[in-house]
Amino acid sequence: MMKPKRLFIFFLVILLLSIFSIIYPTLTGQVTKPTEYEKEPAVLLRVVDGDTIHALTNSGEDITIRLLGINTPEKKMPFCNEAANFLKQFENQTIFLLRDKEDIDKYDRKLRYIFYEDRFLNKEIIESGFANAYMLEDLKYEQDFKLAEKTARLNEIGIWTKSSDVCAYCINLKELDPLEEFFILKNDCQFDCALDGWFVKDAGRNVFYLSAIGTGEEEKVFSKNNKSIWNDAGDSFFMFDKGGLLVEYYEY
Fold first, then answer.
1. Given 117, 121, 153, 186, which is the most exposed site by the fewest CB atoms within 10 A?
2. CA-CA distance, 92 to 44, in Å (whole number)?
3. 40-159 architecture in CATH?
């Protein structure tokens, strides 16, 4: 059995080696710096929707681009046209593309920030209320996008416009369980609510359409086919009325 003194020295050596391994790169100037990418010029050819475009690079390549850090409403959903029209004003104009840590997504689309002259279009779409901030972790402009979303939400514009539906004041989120993948709504109204056309969504593209809830009743909604919808590390809950106006927003 190792003696207490030797055991102490052994652990002290391990501790010193651990500390040295941390500070050595700093002392020798070998700290790895985040890669800094340069903006690349391109021509915006066509807008697919509020967060997807086609662009022509200087090399003559037609590429599909997914705008980083944002998520706009899907086609045929409220404010989808407004989001697309925001980008359409820049069609046939020279824009500048800037990548971040990831180059392409699972659909082989280029992931990029989009600039026009001195304007940052990703950020402007959020500020205009036509998109929510999306998948921001470790992105260069994470804090800018969060602030832009907060501004739009406080101004109650676009997707943040508050509903005036009579049921909007008493259909409430009672519980959201991201582990078991369900949420519970309760009707605190003194009357039944049909909720035709109402829907709930996460920060991404997952949508749940709602049905009638009687007065005082609760509705428990599970994700379909046990699909993982709510991000365990943090996500958002949106509930909209049939006109696409915001009933409730919850972030965790």
1. 117
2. 5
3. Beta Barrel (2.40)
Rg of the chain's alpha carbons, rounded to an integer? 24
CATH topology of domain 162-251: Immunoglobulin-like (2.60.40)
Look up residue 224 and give its DSSP letter.
Answer: G
Of 33, 235, 52, 37, the C-alpha closest to 137 is: 235
Q: Which residue has the tokens 């050595």?
A: 24
48, two tokens: 């697919």
Reading phi first (left if > 0) and then psi (alpha if -120 to 50, else beta), residue 120 is in beta
Report phi then psi at 53, rounded to 5: -140, 165
pLDDT per position as a tens digit, 20-44: 666 655 566 555 566 889 999 999 9
- DSSP 3-state assignment of 92? coil
Q: How are strands ordered across the β-sheet holding 236-240? A: 207-209, 199-201, 236-240, 246-251
Under 8 Å between Cβ of 200 and 207: yes
What are the residue boundaries of the structural domains of the chain, listed by start? 40-159, 162-251
Cα separation of 33 and 50, whole Å?
33
The pair of three-digit structure tokens given for residue 137, joined into one six-digit string: 């972790």
- Better pLDDT: 130 or 19: 130
Say whether pLDDT at 91 is over 60: yes
DSSP secondary structure code for residue 104 in this structure? B
Instruction: Give the length of the chain.
Output: 252
